[in-house]
Amino acid sequence: MAPQQRKPHVCRNPDLIRGVGKYSRSKMYHKRGLWAIKAKNGGAFPKHEKKAAAAAPAEKPPKFYPADDVKKPLVNKRKARPTKLRASITPGTVLIILAGRFKGKRVVFLKQLTSGLLLVTGPFKINGVPLRRVNQSYVIVTSTKVDVSAVNVEKFDDKYFGKKVEKKKKKGEGEFFEAEKEEKNVLPQDKKDDQKSVDAALIQSIEAVPDLKSYLGARFSLKAGMKPHELVF
Amino acid sequence: PFKRYVEIGRIALVNYGKDYGKLVVIVDVIDQNRALVDAPDMVRGQMNFKRLTLTDIKIDIKRVPNKKTLIAAMEAADVKNKWENSSWGRKLIVQKKRASLNDFDRFKIMLAKIKKAGVVRQELAKLKKEATA
């Protein structure tokens, strides 16, 4: 189709009810202009010549037939897609994490990664939650939103959060132990800088709303009399 | 012994069913158990008395008025404001507000309650000091 503006074509034969069109076969023949196409072509509908079928290479009969029938796996055309994001989750929504080290923490949602996990940040200065991935199922969505237009999260993807592959080095025993101690605890400086840059803009927009900072710093818990099925988040 | 009577013009609160929580006017009595009931935003229909709770408010109408007359009579008697200023009406409004609170709103209320309690406690301490002094 040409990329110009064309009005979407209304169907030529609208349904009166399902299965019954408005126009009969003869009327449709006329509407489609098949008579005009035939007239242009001298009385018959224009035909293409069939392309000569490429000669299939002669298949040799197989040398080996398995004793019992081998079952073929069924066709599976499903594609892997990231989990469908709940409509209530938009960038800047405050989420409550329900499981793991940070359970109960209220956290700001940034974006959904291609694996389906949600990229989320504390911000780190406010509640100690770093840039982290979280599964949508382990999260309560609140209706509180923070302005995240000033934050750039383009560079974060699943590979950024993957485990670092250690190069296997053949070394003697003494050096082996030393190497283990070094690699354990250090968080690379560039990750710390990423955290700071993401949080700087976020914290500004959080401080613009009164009480929001202490809200994000506090953990959520069920108190006496709170009925989760009746609570509005 | 009885103060609120079923009469034409009595305002009642629906306590069961599709119109739960609505204020309706009793517009006619059908038999021992049912009344014809009407409200500005609903189609006039019958309701069992068991579904109604009578209020103190009464308006001045004749048996089965037009919708227009009914609305005019309700405006004249100022039902809405009377209801919203009554302690019963205010209670219901507060209940609805509490039920619709956001998680963030609940947090803000907690801070406010703590602050208020702190102020009260300070005043109490001052008074206690004066009493013992």
Overall spatial form of chain B: elongated
Largest sheet features of chain B = 5 strands, antiparallel
Largest sheet, spatial ordering of strands of chain A: 6-5-4-3-7
Helix content of chain B: 40-55%
The largest β sheet of chain A comes out as:
5 strands, antiparallel
* N→C terminal distance of chain B: 52 Å
Based on CA atoms alone, the radius of gyration of chain B comes out at 22 Å
The most extensive interface, with participating residues per chain, is: A-B, 16 and 9 residues
Average pLDDT rating of chain A: 87
Q: Write down the overall geometry of chain A.
A: extended
Helix/strand order of chain A, N-terminal first: EEHHEEEHEEHHH
Which structural class best describes the helix and strand composition of chain B? alpha+beta
The largest sheet of chain B has its strands arranged as 4-3-2-1-5
Task: Report the oligomer.
Answer: heterodimer
GO cellular component, one term (chain B): cytosolic large ribosomal subunit
Keywords (chain B): Ribonucleoprotein, Ribosomal protein
InterPro entries (chain B): Rib_uL2_dom2, Ribosomal_eL14, Ribosomal_eL14_dom, Translation_prot_SH3-like_sf
Domain Large ribosomal subunit protein eL14 (chain B): 44-116
Write a structural description.
- The complex is a heterodimer of chains A (233) and B (133).
- Chain A is α+β, with helices and mostly antiparallel strands and 233 residues long.
- Chain A is built from six helices and seven strands, in the order ββααβββαββααα.
- Chain A has helices at 25-32, 34-40, 124-127, 173-185, 189-207, 212-217, and strands at residues 15-17, 20-21, 93-97, 106-112, 118-121, 132-134, 139-145.
- In chain A, the strands form two sheets. Chain A has a five-stranded antiparallel sheet with strand order 6-5-4-3-7. Chain A has a two-stranded antiparallel ribbon with strand order 1-2.
- In chain A, 15% of the residues are buried.
- The mean pLDDT of chain A is 87.
- The N and C termini of chain B lie far apart (52 Å).
- Chain B contains four helices and five strands, in the order E-E-E-E-E-H-H-H-H.
- The model of chain B has no long low-confidence stretch (mean pLDDT 94).
- Helices cover 46% and strands 24% of the residues of chain B.
- In chain B, strand 2 (23-29) and strand 3 (34-39) form a beta hairpin.
- By secondary structure, chain B is of the alpha+beta class.
- Chain B is elongated and about 70 Å long.
- Chain B has helices at 67-77, 79-85, 87-99, 103-132; strands at 10-14, 23-29, 34-39, 42-48, 52-58.
- In chain B, strands 4-3-2-1-5 form a five-stranded antiparallel sheet.
- Chains A and B meet through strand 7 and helix 6 of A and helix 4 of B.
